[in-house]
């Protein structure tokens, strides 16, 4: 800790809100709603830790409140010397971001590569648990599902092209960084994904309130994929008809569970830890 | 359906945003953040259905978009004749509420009585499952936990006095009306609640990442209380030391689960349906 590392020598203090180096951080909230790219915003220390230790993502730059620098020595050591660390006052940070950034730590991250479902699956061990999402377009739900996938060590998450981007700012935040941690692919139709899973010898269990078996009776498999659809519509009927289906046993009197909660229950049931 | 019921004869059309009858609906969002009372806002058709069929809550009035009246025949029949149903245009509704009310259905609800934990427990059957919350102050989490309690038919929810109000607008909405459905008490310290549970012969299982047993190994009990604390701090140490504890088995490498997800997993494990 006292090895002579001086944070103030690593950081670039910026006093002018119009400094072009701050452009990627400008109006984060608005850009979030309209655009998407290979770049994303990471917020807070926990997410920054995940980003800086990721093999699939890298930091482009950091933006830190001057009052937070002292607690970040470990992160600044981990940060490659080519990655600039900008430091500003609270006023400047809030003005740039477009809202009050109370955690005081932002980073611009970038994805190095976007593997296909087939590429992800080909690298998995003989025993593997995969989470498959069809049509999940709510960022909170996607973030929560990734958090659960990390907690129960799902090997990857496969999302069809109608799912929302897990690198959306809110999805990353709700996931506590898990969208940067659990390998995922988001491309193709759900049928493409099912075909890739079948080629790799995965058994699929589709979760549905009308599923044929209770998840507690349904057998596991060495290579198991758990498939989740939206809360309202559910999974496409044609898909449910040709897949093995399971339900989370619950009251007949109440609306279905939230899909993220359902993923937590099913992942817990089929994880290697249970 | 065609029995001559005419919604337009049941409703009071209001064209003036300053009409004093609309006062309870004014600036809903702001009042939500500062005050609380026995009154609350119910939003949307599903929540309205729960409110209108509740024994513990009653509607004071309804405020409906004129374009939504046609789909509400069933609800208007259920609504006691003494409860006024106001009807406005979208402009007036948005102006009154202070935001765009896209579901177009609001109601002011009122709690009839607030039973104590002891009163709630004394009415439970020999086999019962109770959810106990200590210090859960996030409205999303409280709403989600109630949704799970309803899905798995927990008999009631007991909250210590440091938990937030489950009648907060967002908690009701996230719970899909379950905070109006599952009986609850919110009063006293967690020690008071533990004492009331013990008097009624409940076994308590405290959920904690450092719990002694896996939830899948921990035995159930005819009368079982599941205790959940906050995500950050967790349950008070003194409490954990004297209670039976259980953990949801998961990765050692990742941050703990969201408390609402944890409640879903534990309730599913110990519910009568599993």
Q: Report the biggest beta sheet of chain A as strand number plus sense, adding barrel if it closes.
A: 7 strands, parallel
What's the CATH superfamily of the largest domain in chain A, by name?
A: SPOUT methyltransferase, trefoil knot domain
If strands are numbered along the chain, what order do they take across the biggest sheet of chain A? 8-7-6-11-9-12-10
Q: Count the helices of chain A. How many? A: 11
Secondary structure class of chain A reads: alpha/beta
Domain count of chain A: the total is: 2
Query: What is the alpha-carbon Rg of chain A in Å?
Result: 21 Å
Portion in helices of chain A: 25-40%
Q: Could you say which overall geometry of chain A the principal axes of the C-alpha atoms support?
A: elongated
| CATH class group of the largest domain in chain A | Alpha Beta
Give the N-terminus to C-terminus distance of chain A in angstroms: 39 Å
Kindly state the number of beta strands of chain A: 12
> Hey, which two chains have the biggest interface?
A-B, 32 and 32 residues
Tell me, rounded to a whole number, the average pLDDT of chain A. 92
């Amino acid at each position: 800790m006292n090895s002579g590392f001086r944070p103030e020598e690593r950081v670039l203090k910026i006093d002018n809100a119009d400094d072009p180096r701050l452009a990627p951080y400008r109006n984060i909230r608005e850009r979030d709603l309209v655009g998407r790219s290979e770049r994303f915003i990471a917020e807070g220390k926990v997410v920054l830790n995940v980003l800086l230790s990721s093999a699939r993502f890298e930091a482009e730059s950091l933006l830190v409140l001057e009052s937070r620098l002292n607690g970040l020595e470990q992160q600044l050591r981990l940060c490659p010397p080519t990655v600039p660390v900008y430091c500003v006052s609270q006023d400047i940070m809030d003005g740039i971001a477009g809202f009050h950034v109370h955690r005081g730590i932002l980073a611009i991250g970038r994805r190095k590569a976007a593997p296909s479902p087939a590429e992800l699956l080909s690298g998995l061990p003989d025993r593997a648990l995969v989470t498959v999402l069809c049509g999940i377009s709510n960022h909170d739900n996607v973030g929560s599902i990734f958090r659960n996938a990390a907690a129960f060590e799902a090997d990857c998450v496969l999302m069809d092209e109608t799912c929302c981007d897990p690198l959306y700012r809110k999805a990353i935040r709700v996931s506590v960084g898990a969208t940067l941690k659990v390998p995922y692919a988001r491309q193709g139709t759900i049928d493409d994904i099912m075909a890739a899973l079948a080629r790799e010898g995965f058994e699929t269990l589709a979760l549905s309130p009308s599923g044929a078996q209770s998840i507690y009776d349904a057998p596991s498999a060495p290579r198991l994929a758990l498939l989740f659809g939206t809360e309202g519509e559910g999974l496409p009927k044609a898909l449910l008809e040709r897949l093995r289906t399971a339900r989370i046993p619950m009251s007949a009197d109440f609306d279905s569970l939230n899909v993220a909660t359902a993923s937590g229950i099913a992942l817990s049931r089929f994880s290697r830890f249970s």
